[in-house]
Amino acid sequence: MVAPVFAWGRLLAQKQAQYPKIYFRFVDLEQEPRVARAVQVRLIPTQIFFDAQGQEQLRHQGAYTDAEFDAVLADLGWLPINEPGD
User: Fold this and answer.
1) Of 3, 40, 47, 59, whose CB is crowded by the most CB atoms within 10 A?
2) Buried b / exposed e across 69-80, counting CB within 10 Å, b at 16+?
3) Torsional sign, CA 20, 53, 38, 78
4) Are 11 and 69 in contact (CB under 8 A)?
5) How far apart are CA 5 and CA 52, in angstroms?
6) Using one digit for the tens of pLDDT, what is the confidence trace for 23-45?
7) Among candidates 24, 26, 36, which has minimal Cα distance to 73?
8) Distance between CA 42 and CA 36 in Å, rounded?
C-alpha cells in the first residue's frame, strides 16, 4: 500500500472517533477486490459517500486534507452531528 493510502486510512480512523454517528469504511483493494469492483473504484484513494439509504451522494478521487474532509461532510449536511445533550 502506498503512503497516501496509509495516511488516508489514519484520517478515516480519526474521523470515525470524532464523528461516531457516521460510518466510515476503508477498503483495501488488494484484500477486497470484489468490493472495489462493485463500487467501480478505479483509482486510489477514492472516497464514496453514501446516504443512510445506500444511495451514492458524492465520489472523489484523490486525498482530502482534514479540513477539506470536514467541509465535504458539512456540504453533505452531515455536520454538525454531535449536538448538546447527545
Assistant:
1) 47
2) bbebbeeeebee
3) negative
4) yes
5) 25
6) 998 888 889 999 989 999 988 88
7) 24
8) 8
Q: Measured between alpha carbons, how far is 22 from 51 in angstroms, rounded to an integer?
A: 10
Q: Which three cell numbers stand for residue 67?
A: 479540513
> Which helix (DSSP H) or strand (DSSP E) does residue 6 occupy?
helix 3-18
What local confidence, expressed as pLDDT, does residue 2 receive? 61
Q: How confident is the model at residue 85 (pLDDT cuts 50, 70, 90)?
A: very low
Rounded to an integer, the average pLDDT of 55-81 is: 90
Start-to-end Cα distance in the chain: 37
- Angle in degrees, CA 12, 27, 25, rounded to 5: 45
Contact 79, 73 (CB under 8 A): yes
